[in-house]
Amino acid sequence: MNIEIVNTGSELMLGRVLNTHQQWLCRQLADMGWVVSRQVAVDDTAEAIAAAVSEALRRADLVITTGGLGPTSDDRTRAVIASLLGVKLRQDEAVLARIQGYFTARKRPMVESTRVQALVPEGATVLLNQHGTAPGLVMQVNDPAGGPVRRLAMLPGPPRELRPMFTCQVAPLLRAAWGADTRFACRTLRTTGLGESLVEERIAPRLEPLTQAGLQLGYCARIGEVDVRLAAAGPNGSRVVAEAENAVRSLLGDWIFGVDDEALEEVVIRELTARRLTVATAESCTGGMISHRLTNVPGASAVFWGGVVSYANAAKELLLGVSPALLAEHGAVSEPVVRAMAEGARRRSGADYALAVTGIAGPGGGSEGKPVGTVFIGLAGPQDTVAARHLNPFDRETFKWATSQQALELLRRALLKQESPPA
Amino acid sequence: MNIEIVNTGSELMLGRVLNTHQQWLCRQLADMGWVVSRQVAVDDTAEAIAAAVSEALRRADLVITTGGLGPTSDDRTRAVIASLLGVKLRQDEAVLARIQGYFTARKRPMVESTRVQALVPEGATVLLNQHGTAPGLVMQVNDPAGGPVRRLAMLPGPPRELRPMFTCQVAPLLRAAWGADTRFACRTLRTTGLGESLVEERIAPRLEPLTQAGLQLGYCARIGEVDVRLAAAGPNGSRVVAEAENAVRSLLGDWIFGVDDEALEEVVIRELTARRLTVATAESCTGGMISHRLTNVPGASAVFWGGVVSYANAAKELLLGVSPALLAEHGAVSEPVVRAMAEGARRRSGADYALAVTGIAGPGGGSEGKPVGTVFIGLAGPQDTVAARHLNPFDRETFKWATSQQALELLRRALLKQESPPA
What we know:
Helix content of chain A: 40-55%
Shape of chain A: elongated
Structural class of chain A: alpha/beta
Largest sheet of chain A: 6 strands, mixed
CATH architecture of the largest domain in chain A: 3-Layer(aba) Sandwich
Oligomer: homodimer
């Protein structure tokens, strides 16, 4: 099945709003076995909408539009589509009653402009909106050249209206119309610590026979992370992807920290929980990002004791007991200091592990021996204290991200060496 | 000028990655006076890339592609474009030397597959990559029908490579080629603490005459923030936007915390710096997000002392001196405890202000009197300690964001009452 998405909205063309519909819709469709072939976004003039939709209808079995169904004057999708397909708009009494009920329930007078949302193209199926006043619309479009019938689904722009409408109303329609025998298997293996080209060098030759068998292999490199994406369509898709996953796991081993949408902090919290271990943090240059990431994970409170953000040297002395002499001798960004931070945090908190970072985020503060981007990471644990040095010569936010990634990975690898206790 | 963007990547079609290039590029171009007319995203097969780029070249004066310039086998843009335009690829020695230097600087052997990135289409201008190995490329494309020359800019996919390359190399090329006489004025006023409909109710009637004069008025509501976007094209655009800004400022006053891309944490750091004041944090339910946000701002180290993430009760006692009796009597999520946290952090750090939060992020932990989402925020300052209670009944990450926003806003409003010292 050939699917295209058309997003409309001048705010998209002006770059004022981030378009999250494309990823969300593509992900939902992929999970059902259908891959979108094109995403198009245009402004909300009638000409642009008509051009984008009519081009998409020439190519695709299904065209999904988003936006332009609201009550204001820049909401043109309804009228443009009706005109494009040569059908009339009719007032839908059920939709009108629902709009009136929406205002009654909120004890507000009905705004007259919202009435336009009850106009629907002749022949359209109405999708009721559980979270707003604009209904969605689905139409069948006959190919004048006698080809297969096309479908056009028009969805409202706000994500909290679009998402449940797609899940509860559009997806079942598609499953009923197309069946679900188009299978599409997809697995993402997430690695940290290796560069993209090194990852490919290690795994691509071994996967070559599977790509002959339909494996689609993709890489996505971000700072501190390289994803390997394994996908395959058809009845053998799941088997091909499973075989590929086994091969990649045997080649990359512990470099793989998680799968699919798993973040490194989720894996760390899970491993701590499984071993009934706790962690505390002592952050300088990451400024709280590590504890922020850990506490994004539900259940973190059972294994995360807390932490300190010892930004100033005085904070390192007061909160962690790092001695002024040590700071003076080696400087705040040094291996002895990061060890003292980790050990101080572990001693004071009583946690099983304490993770510490100190570094030079820049733009200022670098020197020849310790350029901007230099980071020391320390981990104090039940057996010993380990420390690592990294160079992350990035802008401030990327520096913080890369450093937090390296610190969490140091903890994850230490946990892998610890046996899980019996359940 | 007619501009189109073509993003390539199967990860986009499978919904595995959020496409942030469109918004970023559109925003940059709009700020220079050019509005993008179409965004297209396709997978990274040669056919899809060739179709999307050749269609775009028929319509647009400038086509910007993103992605597909890396070293792996799914990076096809370079070769597809060369073939589409009927030119050969040549090895660029300067690019090759740069790639070799990249590996040498990192003390790693050069991976052979990266060599492909030194291949550039004949006639292309090479854009050196400050943050990676893949160069960008700019080509002029002559219209066979004798129309004006088209431009094609190919940029690498990783945002931290694409963004500086666009800003430092592509934007100057465009300004030189097209001039900058297309004027488009745009100003965003950022508010926190008021709902979207309340903001609109307050300002829309007064702005009505200016919308007649060409003002484009837009709202963007996110959790804890409502942006008012004022835009106008043409020679009077700047005047219209300035008049609208004055009107909105007189109506919304202190509810406006910043303009354009200014984040609340930037404003807070700026106001602290101007008054030579310092702040410490004591975070429970936000888990370090407040200190993370503050330390994202360059220069934070001059005014941010540090903080504690007192997630466990033991951490509140040990790090902040909150008495076990107070915790037992009122519970960790209470006004007396947040006041004690703020005062303890201020006393121990010696900072001028200390900001404390404690709350119930959920999903568990709520009660009838204190449902999930309940938050107490405390601010201890030179004159007194103030506390506020909020209800943020959202998912975990949104809860943390909304709470950090309310806490930073409490500090910003306290600072506004403090005179700046003489320079």
